[in-house]
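Handout, page 2. Input:
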Amino acid sequence: MKKLSVLLITSILAVQLYGCGSAPSVNKIIDSVDKESADITIGTDETEQTEQTEQTEQTEQIEQTEQEDIQETEDYSMLGVYTASGYQNDYFGYQINLPSEYQLNSRAAFSSGNEDVVSESNNETTLSWLKTNLNLSNATVFDASTDMDFISVLVESPGIIADYWDEEETIANNSLNRVIEALESLNDEDITVSEISAQVDYLDNFIDGTHYAVMYMCLINDTPYYGIEIYVRSADAKYLSVFDFSSFEAEGIERICGYCTVK
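Output:
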């Protein structure tokens, strides 16, 4: 059942020439140059060559230093960090503190098995990979679960056609049909999804205030399944956090929401 639920969450959250020309023949250029003039132009004394070499080396050192500075100042703050009890995101200003029965699932591209989940999820390799995905579209920044409850948090960029996200209510209304279609697409020979219902609503007291969401419920192989997708836009509107909470228990969504608080 747990594997089926992870598949469900993944399906719901899946939500974006060089010219060439011709140049004159090198041989023709050489043939057109008077040899004596060429000797004068090409000739360089030893002092000038040394100065040019030193200048080139200095330029390369400056460029290397600038590149290192860029790498050192790479902003990963919107990705948040794993903690021993959950997750913290200072960019959005919230934290998720979970009871001990929750399993934290690594957000690394590939788990080496040599690090604990928190360290692996926060190392430079993982952060760089997540930031690359975010620049393209979105990144799953947190994942945790029990046998009954499932938590997944994405951060999304607005894409190449916009610099900022719409209002959260607009995002929720635009997401409604996608959520329904994602649930319907899960039907196959092993999974039967039926009695799907979904609606746009809002939560008055989620993290720092009111936020819009798509709430849904259905039967999966005749077992009730409850879920919510909450949209929280960053203060600068450059990023969107999508909280996808689901549970096999009716009270599960309210329980999970209670773990999310203002940082």
